[in-house]
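Practice problem 4.
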């Protein structure tokens, strides 16, 4: 029963973290290129309103992803599934590192861009802000990939 519960929770973790992974991949592969074609006003308005809605809706998805990854780790340890526990621990480490990038770099920029979109006042460093936000996408995408790979490994090994 513990194994089935662990598998179910790990599957939930895959689904939740896949949403965050997709969001980051879309930013890296599509949105970044689109923003380069826009002037500073259009870019800031688009990014600002995007962050406004994302910062209201995505935290629950991210929290579910982290909590279910941690639960996967705890269940694996309880069930004596060392391989699963290692895979889940790698996942949790990747997610916590991702969160640090978000809190320290992305979130402050999100807040600035949201304020600019709401007020209509575009900061003089709008392009630099977006470039700084974009600069961590490669790390965010890689960390989410590692997290999903760890969860897939956990599912296989359970």
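Answer key:
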């Amino acid at each position: 029963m513990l194994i089935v519960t662990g598998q179910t929770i790990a599957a939930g973790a895959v689904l939740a973290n896949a949403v965050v992974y997709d969001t980051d991949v879309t930013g890296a592969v599509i949105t970044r290129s689109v923003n380069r074609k826009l002037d500073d006003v259009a870019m800031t308005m688009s990014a600002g309103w995007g962050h406004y809605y994302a910062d209201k809706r995505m935290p629950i998805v991210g929290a579910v992803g982290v909590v279910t990854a941690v639960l996967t780790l705890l269940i694996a340890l309880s069930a004596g599934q060392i391989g699963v526990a290692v895979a889940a621990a790698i996942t949790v480490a990747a997610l916590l590192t991702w969160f640090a990038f978000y809190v320290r770099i992305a979130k402050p920029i999100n807040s600035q861009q949201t304020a600019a979109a709401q007020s209509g006042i575009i900061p003089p460093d709008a392009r630099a802000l977006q470039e700084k936000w974009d600069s961590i996408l490669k790390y965010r995408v890689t960390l989410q990939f590692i997290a999903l790979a760890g969860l897939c490994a956990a599912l296989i090994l359970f």
